[in-house]
Write a structure and sequence with these properties.
The protein has eight helices and 20 strands. The chain is an alpha/beta fold and 428 residues long. The chain folds into two domains: 266 residues, no CATH class; 57 residues, no CATH class. The longest helix has 17 residues. The relative contact order is 0.09.
């Protein structure tokens, strides 16, 4: 069965003319890893809640190519350093990178490979990724483009970096994107990644993040893909001394989506914040899987993941925090809060702690329930109709996660899309 699923991708692989030898060798090695690993099965703990049938019914042929697209519905209202990728390829006519300060590089992955290949050489190899990640290996074999943001020491961007991924596909294609963010010592950036499209396709992204000492990155991923699409993304981050990473995951779209976030706090005093919200309806399934590794003393982690599941939707959260023996004085807290709006909806949540140090403060927890009956009663007693009262409580539940985004413009941007989702909800 595994060979049946992997064979179309192995047969579709072809060496790319003109690439450097190191990249050709890494592509071949990645393809071999994918062939060895195959598609994961529900017998594997990390994948036991995920239904891969939308990915297995027929192959998604790796493709790139230009197509007409309009990024306007997802574009930030204010100024930004903007890159737009359509069908997995850089779209120069839709992008507005603008003037960058000295020591800043923002470009497509294809351009970076041509002009600054040393930036990317160490990020293509996926063999060291935590656990079984066959789709990251498939990505390393097939990727054609993506984006690269590199800031030298002390560089701070005063505008957010906006990356818009749009899909306007033909027949069941897959788009494999490989990207890198590298921040030097004490550099600063905010970044919004948006994924959207129409039709039946598969987006498969791998993003490497490297934060130097005292660097700070706010990274928001907004997934609003077609409800016929499959969306997989893996983010692998390494944080040096006193670096700060604030990540936010916002899921509204895709038939099947999974976001893996693997973070290593490698330097003393590093901080990792990962928050998120998934709002699901119909037969959507969305999984968020995080692995936060504290490998140095004095690190902090804060996680709040929320999910709203309506109709026959399925939400999944798998969260693990590991504290290594040398990571004394770790302070890590993880919370999964979930709202079921239908008897046919389902949520699986599994927060975990693995503590191998003795001087730590760590906690985790999970809640799953329906809307608060007392709050509903209070709103209705004030003359608010039942359907409207339910909408108010759903919005408040999700907005609590959005409130953790510090930048008002970014927070308002996502809140507008939350309002759109609520406006389309079928009230009982």
């Amino acid at each position: 069965m595994m060979a049946e699923h992997t064979a179309p991708y192995l047969e579709a692989f072809a060496p790319k003319a003109g690439e450097p030898r190191w990249l050709a060798m890494q592509r071949q090695a990645a393809l071999q890893r994918f062939a060895t690993l195959g598609f994961p099965s529900r017998r594997e703990e990390a994948w036991r809640f995920t239904d891969l049938r939308p990915l297995q019914r027929a192959a998604f042929t790796p493709q790139t190519g230009k197509a007409a697209a309009d990024p306007a519905p997802w574009r930030l209202a204010g100024p930004a350093h903007r890159i737009v990728l359509v069908n997995g390829s850089f779209a120069a006519d839709l992008s507005e990178i603008g003037a960058l300060p000295k020591g800043a590089w923002l470009a497509s992955t294809a351009r970076t490979l041509a002009e600054r290949p040393a930036l990317l050489e160490a990020t293509i190899d996926a063999s060291d990724l935590e656990g079984r990640q066959p789709f990251a290996s498939l990505n390393a074999a097939f990727f054609a483009d993506g984006f690269v943001l590199a800031l030298e020491d002390g560089v701070a961007l005063d505008r957010p970096v906006e990356i818009i991924h749009l899909a306007r596909p033909g027949e069941r294609p897959s788009f494999h994107l490989r990207s890198l963010v590298q921040l030097g010592q004490a550099s600063r950036a905010q970044m919004l990644e948006t994924f959207a499209g129409s039709g039946d396709y598969w987006t498969n992204e791998v993003l490497a993040l490297r934060l130097g000492p005292d660097a700070a990155l706010t990274h928001i991923r907004f997934q609003d893909e077609s409800t016929d699409a499959v969306h997989f993304a893996l983010t692998r981050a390494s944080l040096d001394r006193a670096a700060r990473y604030e990540g936010f995951l916002f899921n509204l779209g895709a038939r099947l989506s999974r976001q893996d976030v693997l973070v290593t706090l490698a330097g003393e005093g590093a901080h990792c914040g990962i928050d998120g919200a998934s709002l699901l309806r119909g037969e959507q399934e969305a999984a968020i899987a995080t692995f936060i590794e504290h490998a140095a003393p004095g690190g902090t982690t804060r996680e709040l993941i929320k999910c709203v599941a309506d109709e026959r939707a399925h939400g999944i959260f798998l969260g693990r925090i590991a504290v290594r023996p040398d990571a004394q004085r770790t302070d890590a807290h993880q919370l999964s809060r979930n709202l079921l709006l239908s008897a046919r909806a389902a949520i699986d949540t599994k927060p975990e702690l693995e503590i191998l140090a003795d001087d730590v403060k760590c906690s985790h927890g999970a809640t799953v329930g329906d809307l608060d009956e007392e709050a509903l009663f209070y709103l209705r007693s004030r003359g608010i109709p039942l359907a409207e009262a339910r909408q108010v409580l759903i919005e408040a539940f999700a907005a609590d996660a959005l409130d953790r985004i510090g930048d008002p413009a970014l927070r308002a941007h996502l809140a507008a899309h939350l309002g759109r989702w609520l406006s389309l909800r079928k009230n009982p």
